[in-house]
């Protein structure tokens, strides 16, 4: 439990960053009353490189896997949705370990991997113990 508690600041920072990115994308895509990514003659922006490609692949997989068939059991549905969410955090951290250069970010990524893998194991055990 102590490791999980220590991971909360890291997880909160990641969630805050993700929320900020999401808001920035929403503000940008809704500028002028249209969605710049929906076609309308706009060309998709070129990738900035392998890190972006990896992050986009992780993001796409995570969101697809989070699209669960809901059971009506809030506890189970939460756990079933959080597993791919945590797996996405691990995959994002692995991307930064491969492509990043900042030592502090690398350390955060390693902490996220350790904490999220521990929580994923706990959630899988919970699902099994509770018949899901």
Give a structural overview:
The chain is built from four helices and no strands. The chain is flat, with a radius of gyration of 17 Å. It has helices spanning 2-29, 50-66, 74-99, 103-129. It has 132 residues and is mainly α. Helix 1 (2-29) packs across helix 4, helix 2 (50-66) packs antiparallel against helix 3 and helix 3 (74-99) packs antiparallel against helix 4 (103-129). The chain starts with a helix and ends with a helix.
Summarize the structure.
The protein contains 4 helices and no strands.
Main features:
132 residues, mainly alpha, 4 helices
Quaternary organisation of the protein chains: single chain
The beta-strand count equals 0
N-to-C order of helices and strands: HHHH
Low-confidence stretches: 1-40
Largest sheet: none
Strand content: under 5%
Continuous helix count: 4
Radius of gyration from the CA trace?
17 Å
First-last Cα distance: 23 Å
Report the mean per-residue pLDDT as an integer: 79
Secondary structural class: mainly alpha
Shape: flat
User: Helicity range of the residues?
Assistant: over 70%
What is the topological layout?
Elements: H1 2-29, H2 50-66, H3 74-99, H4 103-129
Helix pairs in contact: 1-4, 2-3, 3-4
